[in-house]
Amino acid sequence: MTSSVGRLSAVAVEKVTKRYGRQRALGGVSLTLEAGRLCALLGPNGAGKSTLVGVLAGLIRPTLGRVTFLRGGSDKHVDPCVARAAIGLLAHDAGVYGELDALEDLRLFGALYDVADPIARAQEVLAEVGLEVAAQTRPARTYSRGMMQRLSLARALLHRPDLLLLDEPFSGLDRRGTQKVGEILRLAKQDGRVVLVVSHDLEAIGGLCDHAAILQRGVLVHEITRDQPFSHAELRDLYQRHIEGDAAHNMAVTGQSGADEQSESAKLSGYRPVNGSEGP
User: Fold this and answer.
1) In this predicted structure, which of 22-26, 213-217, 243-247, 251-255 has the lowest mean pLDDT?
2) Which tens digits make up the pLDDT trace of 214-231?
3) Average pLDDT for residues 118-130, to the nearest whole number?
4) How far is Cα 226 from Cα 203, in angstroms, rounded to an integer?
5) What share of the chain is helix, strand, coil (3-state, %, to 5)?
6) Which of 104-118, 143-157, 250-264 has the lowest mean pLDDT?
7) C-beta atoms surrounding 241 within 10 Å
8) Residues 6+ apart with CB under 8 A from 280
9) How far is CA 92 from CA 139, 219, 275, in A?
10) Are the C-beta atoms of residues 49 and 43 closer than 8 Å to each other?
11) Which of 17, 65, 171, 253 is 20–30 Å from 53 (CA)?
12) pLDDT for 1 beyond 90
């Protein structure tokens, strides 16, 4: 599905702050996500990553700041309500309907997104994520964690979104599943989509991202963009310099900015056009 206003060219996050009472989850975060690039959003638990994903998805209202969706140039803004139809979200919680099988689940969401021939598209995207045909007609409650993750990713991709927001897409996947996700991300970049991936798996995201942003206690502490993807070793070095080098201080402030990873996953799971979690 392509938005009637045209493809998104960029998403601008401008001085976004999110507070829950006295607790700060995000503090003045600004960054721009561009079409044809893959941004790896890195940081420890409680850094604000899932909160930022929620703000970008339109599920969490920032206390201060704004998110602007752009098409074709900085002067062509897209209404956030319109842009939301062009977002594919994979959140922490799978959020799938246990009594529906994969095809039924995707047919339902295909109807919500007005996907042409939703069954054919569902079969296509399930093949892309590697969910076995035999499993596609079984109730989702019988799925392993990895199978749930594949279905959730298929749901995020179903309507061919311009903006992909993937929170830990490699979680629970075996090596084959991780490779499939990597290929999906490469194709999304090549197709000119805006892609943001939250991941602790630096090896999996290495070789894919050409934009890295590091959050620490709700603050963007480092951001870098370049023409060539970062290797696993380069990402590890960035992370060690900007996060692990401050480990002692992190421990001293644990919990002061982390209304994020657990409380926000509950909010994100309510966003039915996607969500996330393979297992044995």
Assistant:
1) 251-255
2) 999 999 999 999 999 999
3) 95
4) 18
5) 35, 25, 40
6) 250-264
7) 13
8) 144, 146
9) 20, 21, 6
10) yes
11) 253
12) no
CA distances to 46, 92, 197 from 148, rounded to whole Å, are 24, 11, 18
> What angle do the packed helices 118-129 and 102-112 form, to 10 degrees?
120
Instruction: Give me the sign of the Cα torsion angle 249, 250, 255, 257.
Output: positive
Q: Distances in Å between the alpha carbon of 199 and those of 6, 41, 106, 205, 213?
A: 29, 7, 25, 7, 11
Q: Side by side, which strands form the sheet with 77-78? A: 23-34, 10-20, 64-70, 77-78
Helical (H) or strand (E) element with 67: strand 64-70
Q: Provide the CA 229 distance to its chain's centre, in angstroms.
A: 18
**Using N-to-C axis directions, what is the helix angle for 175-190 and 118-129, rounded to 10°?**
120
Number of C-beta neighbours around residue 64 at 10 A: 13
* Position 231, amino acid: S
> Would you state the structure tokens that stand for residue 89, as one six-digit string?
């979200």
